[in-house]
């Protein structure tokens, strides 16, 4: 049903973090204009036919789109208090190579993800085959779960308070991480799974400990803003390089 | 942002002098007699990096909004509380059956404890449907919804209840009860702002502020002024380099301006967070200080100042 309690991280975002992010991500009108123009430049120009307004064939029809199937970088809206970067969803994904020869190994990954995130993961089937690994197209090879809202904040809470401090030889999320559209990913080794309190409790139920990766989808339009947002949630970044 | 001008009481200067001052349009040189009747003139500052930036005859000043963000979750509204209670009951009722075989090994101590807890819960089952479940409250020994939720989560994550009873500190501290305005450990649910008292009679309470020198930017000036006024015993982090507020005011008639051309100041407020430490009063630049919430600030700070400043302060 609905929420069962106040969410600590969300309240923190609403009271302090969003105010600070508004200040940090503010662009003066000149800089904002330059940024939008830079993004618009990479968009392919409309064809002559699309620009032609007098064409009788285009009357009462939606305007023609530019040619080509290439996805362009989104153009941010004019900035306001509503466009402050915010965490939308988190994807936790793990690819289990051992599932190629024995499908039962998938179960361990699925149960682990379910325990961590409290949501049921869905199985991923391979699109193409790789002969070297004996992988055929359409084989169940991994699992992914998308979490939003309260479960997302509890997951990040667990990460930040318990798991990340206990990781060995981990220097922070790499600064190169980010798809330049405001989404940050990070990977975890297999020993990270055992650090979660949900799994630490009954370690023996999970025969196969796999590594997994976490993707934070934010409403930010640049890497820098996404990193600032996540740093606000106390996720450290490897600044050394 | 058009800040309201401060209108001060006109001091007892001869009428002719006053009219001379007002009627002449854009005066660049004001006769010294108007300014020097109360106090002797101040010495000229050094013409080096310590020279204050002046824009359009207004002194550029950098103010610091030093905040201590809320330390604990706010108290939920009674309706919120009821809603969360109701949703918890729904969750208990509609949750899928618990996979005991997965989580507990047969014959283990944890399984035994879990079975005992189930028996206990069955006894309290009827009270789930009652409006005021005092029984459940006293069993779990909690006042907070968050604590109760923690306990529910504890069951699911099977942590040992007997080991290490977590002691939760009280939400209302001793400084709250004593109303100690100098303490940072007060009003944990709210944001606290630092205001300082300048050594003058009127318009004494304000945010720490100081002039911006020619060769520094706003944040550097803010950091320097904060250290000069409040000491260096505080761990402070400035939020970016952009100001969050602006306030322009004219100097009162009886104020001695260093440079006669300067009409007043324009203050750009920089936001900062304080993590630890305390203000050190040196009695030279500041005489007193207080960490106050947005509402409490109204009692200290003059009204036009508060009106200009309130919109950049957080409601929480």
From TrEMBL, chain A:
InterPro entries: Ribosomal_uL5, Ribosomal_uL5_C, Ribosomal_uL5_dom_sf, Ribosomal_uL5_N. Keywords: Ribonucleoprotein, Ribosomal protein. GO terms for molecular function: structural constituent of ribosome. Residues 141-237 form the Large ribosomal subunit protein uL5 C-terminal domain. GO terms for cellular component: ribonucleoprotein complex; ribosome. Residues 55-82 are annotated as: Disordered. This is Large ribosomal subunit protein uL5m. It comes from Glomus cerebriforme.
From TrEMBL, chain B:
Residues 174-314 form the Nudix hydrolase domain. It comes from the Eukaryota. GO terms for cellular component: mitochondrial inner membrane; mitochondrial large ribosomal subunit. InterPro entries: NUDIX_hydrolase-like_dom_sf, NUDIX_hydrolase_CS, NUDIX_hydrolase_dom, Ribosomal_mL46, Ribosomal_mL46_N, Ribosomal_mL46_NUDIX. CDD domains: NUDIX_MRP_L46. It holds the Pfam family MRP-L46. Keywords: Hydrolase, Mitochondrion, Ribonucleoprotein, Ribosomal protein, Transit peptide. It is found in: Mitochondrion. PROSITE patterns: NUDIX, NUDIX_BOX. One of its GO terms (molecular function) is hydrolase activity. Signal peptide: none annotated. Belongs to the mitochondrion-specific ribosomal protein mL46 family. This is Large ribosomal subunit protein mL46. It comes from Glomus cerebriforme.
